[in-house]
Amino acid sequence: MLQRFRKLREAGVLGMNTRNAGIIMTFNPRSRFPLVDNKVITKELAARHGIPTPVLYGVIKRHGDIKKLDSITEGRDSFVVKPARGSGGSGIILVTEKKDGAFFTQSGKKITMTDLIQHITDILSGIFSLQGQDDSAIIETLINPDDVFASVAFQGVPDIRIVVYRGMPAMAMVRLPTRSSDGKANLHLGAIGAGIDLASGITTTAVHRSVIVTDHPDTGNPVSGIKVPHWEKMLLMAARSLEMTGLAYVGADMVLDRDAGPLLLELNARPGLAIQMANRSGLLKRISRIDLAPDEAFLTPESRVDWAQNHL
Predict the structure, then answer these.
(1) What is the arrangement of strands in the sheet containing 159-165, beginning at the earlier edge strand?
(2) Which stretches of 33-115 are assigned E, i.e. beta strand?
(3) How many angstroms separate the CA atoms of 288 and 129, rounded?
């Protein structure tokens, strides 16, 4: 066990204790956490900083607001319902079709209006929130995913996670839905995480349930060698999270919409560590290199992206 620990340290792997005590507690003021823990607030901040997010249809903040659900969903055949304070993809429903007064998810599951109201009631009660707090339900547009990942995604919408340290993109991956993840881009549910080279925006190695893989388990297609469109724009959006939130260590989660291009889904002040497995590279090593960057590299989001692409 001790030998394994030494090998991880030598590889520059960032562990949970170091992440929590050495980075998050040092660089992420607790007073700033609400800016990213609540997706409604994050959307408002993003709009002020010129960062595009999915179109918001409505917010249900209290039980008395549920009566607005009919008007919010009227005339909409597709939409997303999610908790404002949720994490890890929990509590999210993707409605892709409306037929005969009922809704259907991307996996074909039928949901009645009564079911939807019950789910929103659960959201409001805090079942899916980070700390069991009272929550709000967000209803927003359903992403029409770019075709770039069509051959390596099962049903759902892939998303891209960029870990940002001191405003610099440090590491990135794309999370690809699988049958076992029920079409959700969630690694814990069984999605694939494929590393992305920061300089080129091309996918590299991939991990599925802690095992390195080369092909998608459902489509059989290789997950490496895919060029991510709008890559520099996505890096710049992630880099701007520092000015936007005052948090120096975040995970920026984005999606690629076929028509709208890159959209910011959310920011996470406690990004997970599996991204290191997807990239087969240690975050601690990259963080140490960023700490040695010259002062001028940190001046603007553009300078930070430029430095990261040329030195990481």
Answers:
(1) 211-213, 203-208, 192-196, 168-176, 159-165, 249-257, 261-268
(2) 56-60, 79-83, 93-99, 102-105, 110-111
(3) 33
What integer pLDDT is reported at residue 107 of this predicted model? Answer: 77
DSSP calls for 272-306: -STHHHHHTS-HHHHHHHHHTS-GGGGSSHHHHHH
Q: If you search the block for the tokens 């701007």, which residue do you land on? A: 240
Rounded to two decimals, the pTM is 0.92
Q: Other C-beta atoms within 10 Å of 296: how many?
A: 9
Q: How far apart are CA 99 and CA 122, in angstroms?
A: 24
Contact (CB, 8 A) for 277 and 251: no
274 burial level (CB within 10 Å; 0-12, 13-18, 19+): middle
Distance CA 301, CA 189 (A): 33
In three-state secondary structure terms, 212 is strand
Q: Provide, rounded to the nearest whole percent, the portion of the chain with pLDDT above 90.
A: 82
Helix (H) / strand (E) element for 70: namely helix 69-73
Write the pLDDT tens digit of every residue in 223-236: 999 999 999 999 99
Query: Which pair of tokens denotes residue 78?
Result: 């597709």
Residue 188 amino acid letter: H
State which amino acid sits at residue 272: G
Ordered by where they begin, the domains of the chain are 2-52+145-311 (3.30.470.20), 56-140 (3.30.1490)
pLDDT digits (tens, 9 = 90+) for 149-162: 999 999 889 999 99
Report d(CA 147, CA 153) in Å as an integer.
Answer: 10
